[in-house]
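Homework-ish question, so no full write-ups if that breaks the rules, but can someone show me the predicted structure for this set?
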Amino acid sequence: MMVSATDKGLLFWLRRIGMMIEDALLILFLSLMIVLACGQIVLRNFFSIGLVWADGLLQISVLWLGLLGAMVASRDDNHIKIDVLSRFFPEKMQIPIRLLSHLFTAAICGILAWQSFLFVRSEYAFGTTGVGKYPIWIFQSILPIAFGLISYRYALNFLSLLRCSGKEGKKSR
Amino acid sequence: GESQAVQIKLATVAPEGSLWMEGMRRGAEEIKKRTGGRVQIKLFGGGVMGNENSVLRKIRIGQLQGGAFTAGGLSNVCADLRLYGLPMVFHSLDEVDYVRARMDQVLLAEMAKAGFVSFGFGEGGFALLMSHEPVRSLKDMKGKKVWIPADDRISEVAMKHLGLSPVVLPITDVLTGLQTGLLDIVETSPIGAIAFQWHVKTRYITDAPLAYIFATLVIDKRVFDKIEPADGEILREVMTRIYKEFDRQNRADNEAALAALLKQGLKIVQPADGELTLWREKADQVNRGLEKEGAFTPALYHQLLGHLAEFRKK
Amino acid sequence: MIPSILLILLALVGVPLFVIIAAAALWGFHSSGIDLSVVAIEIYRIAETPVLLAIPLFTFAGYLLSESQAPQRLMRLTQSLIGWLPGGLAIVSLGVCAAFTAFTGASGVTIIALGALLYPAMEEAGYPQKFNLGLITTSGSLGLLFAPSLPLILYGIVAQQMNLGQPVAIEDLFLAGIFPGLLMLVLLSLWSVWANRGNRIPLSRFKWRDVGSSIRNAAWELPLPIFVLGGIYGGFFAVSEAAAMTALYVLVVEVIILREISLRRLPSIMRKSMVLVGGILVILAVSLASANYMIDAGIPTRLFELINAHVSSRLTFLILLNIFLLLLGALLDIFSALVLVVPLILPVAVGYGIHPVHLGIIFLANMQIGYLTPPVGLNLFISGYRFKKPISEVYWSTLPFFLILLCSVLVITYWPALSLVLLH
Ligand code: NA
Ligand code: NA
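A: Not a homework solution, just the prediction itself:
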């Protein structure tokens, strides 16, 4: 019991800090996007300056915002779903269906994370550059991180639901 | 023994139904027939495989075995492809012909070193200035909004040397940009102007060759080397022939496109006295700057300049 | 076959849509023997598609407006102007959404950005919720036929390069889109009036005093379209930059000038809106991968050949074309569909004497309702997500609107003069 309690404490704090970083990054990238996109217009019209790297950076921000947003959405399983059938299943089936759904999501996102990692590694190996002269893999690194974390979150969802249902099962017996 | 058929999937931004696609399809058919079906070419037009960076990535992982690239798109893996396209190195198509007869093989060898088999280059013509107001001198461009594509290093450096202010926009914004006055000046070949319909929103063309545009088809060398030598020769022969045809055909098409532009009311403007010399001096500074940056192999650049000097002496 | 059935089942029991699409793409590439990291390469194309920049910016602007008092002000203004007209606010909403989509493309951002503003406004005005849901969902792709929509321009560029012997000028496409686009707007407006005939939305008499006061109330929001359109047509910024200027304008007005949103609330609004953007972009990203699998496997071409084999006349061609394009709209994004399919169908269409400009309008009109076609129209999902409604409810709410649009598509298809009358 003691061990699991401290475990939970550590994980709890990691989780809190991680969530704060995610939220901060979301806000940071959106602000950056507004400043950069509007700044470009101001620079062009009032100072006759055109930034060649700005468009590239803006588009990278779209990718980062999208993936960070998707990460945050998976905290509480808040993704777009079709889900028209599960309501018609009996109560007893609901939990196994959700377990299956979480597990499947974790697995697919795990594969995406691994394939993204291979992609980023190969870009690193080939030394592709972008947004001016920077190595592009830095900008791409969000891909494996995002899908890895989404996978991790759904795996946690799966485990906690499993534990929950196990307890309830015991209680009812 | 019986060897397996090699499938070569090629991507391009040229749309399905274009002359390029039709020419390639005929070539693919001929190659299939003459190799007894051992080499099969599948084409993906219209940029459906993504931009040139995406196509390169897909060649690396083997989803694609090759593609058609502009010189700029491939310059990340073979820097010397930038040479022909440097600002104002060529003064005329005669100069281009003279240099290309001597240096095409050199560039093909450079590409082979980078892991790509190429079968020659297809001309895209010279990029020309197209504008609302006549552009005869550098002064005419001052304070005007000149379009350059995002992340185009050479254009960026050139603009800086000319003291001009570029407007960086995605290509899809150019047409409306010309209409609204967001852009005053764009740079493209006559074929390009008609394809993107920019001629509808511009009135003048300046008769000064800014940069030579060309493209090439490459196949992953790892794949090419897997093809039986006899079949590889057939592939090489047919593709080289097709690219020679493209090269010739495009020159005629560009002339026709320019004639069509003039027929539609656009006017040709000659640079003022001494302007062309001034522009070329500036361009030379740009090119030497790029040389220092390591944008291409200095020895090859000087070889090109040597050929040009030879030609100009005659 | 079995994997696809399994995936459909998993989708129906609530596995996130992006996971289903990603799994389909992974399975497809795996069975074609292609390295699976192609999926990562495709997802990364999100960062190589300039049009997507508008999504986060417009979404944020829409969220800000919805969290302020703007919906109420907008509702009061339209009530004072056309409160005497049954369905007035609905008609205004349709027009506004169409204009917005013409500038942004049909990426679903209309639903999120404008829906956030219009949905509460219409609810406040007393429209039934089911009607509002249907209207906003439908409006998400309305306006594709109006200039300067990017798909129209792209169609012109693709068709121009095909050596058809007749020019396909982008300006002609702009002209050709006007009446077909208006037809859709008018039919949907008539439906809005009819559907609300029995509702007890109190019709108000027109009073200049009310108009004056509601205009003064909305004095800061009203100039927004003028600011944006003026900026574009004055040559200050590009169509693709309108989103950034809108976001900035709304931010300044609601946070600094009107102070209806405090600086302390701003981070949470930013966060909430970007979670929504994440939900949509991750679907667009994996859809790039699944579309790429289909392109790699030549599925659209094969589908077209299958259909083309049954064509014997102009009429059967048009009927089968409608079916083909509706299917396609569910499978591919509009840009891939354009470059991939237009070259396939255009020569056949021209062979049957269909004008290439007319075909462009037919194509886009079909793609437009492809976003709404159950079961897999993207706009249906986006709408359900935004307004937190079960997807089945979205289906039923959108159905009448969908049927009306289907009728307009048929009219547009079989009555070429509607598109071509303004040409020459
Ligand atoms: Na684009
Ligand atoms: Na679609």
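Now go work out the reasoning yourself. Hint: The longest strand of chain A covers residues 129-130.
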